[in-house]
Amino acid sequence: MNRTEFIVVTAVILFVAFALGWFANWLVYRFTRVTRAEIGELDRMAQALHDAEETRDEALIQMEEQEAKLNARNQQLEAELRTAMEGLREARSETEELRDWIDKHQKKA
User: Within the chain, what is the greatest distance between any pair of CA atoms?
Assistant: First the structure.
C-alpha cells in the first residue's frame, strides 16, 4: 500500500466514523426530543407545584398562629387553675378552722 492509498483509506475511515457519529447523535436527539405538549405539561406541573408550595406555606403560618393562640390560652387556663387551687386550699383551711371552733364550742356546751 503506497502513500496515496493510505491517505484515501484513512480519509474514508474518518468519514465513515464522522457519519456514524452524526447518525448516532441524530438518533439520540430524535428519541430524547421534548415535544411542545410535554413542555406544556411540565409548565402546568411547575405551576401546580408552585401553588401547592404557597398553600403549604400559608397553612404553616396559620398553624403557627393557631399554636401560639392555643399556647397563650393554655397558659391562661393554667394560671386560672393555680388560682382556683390556692382558693380551694384556703377554703379547706378555713373549713378545718371552723370545724375545730365548732367542736370546741360543742364540747363546752
Answer: 148
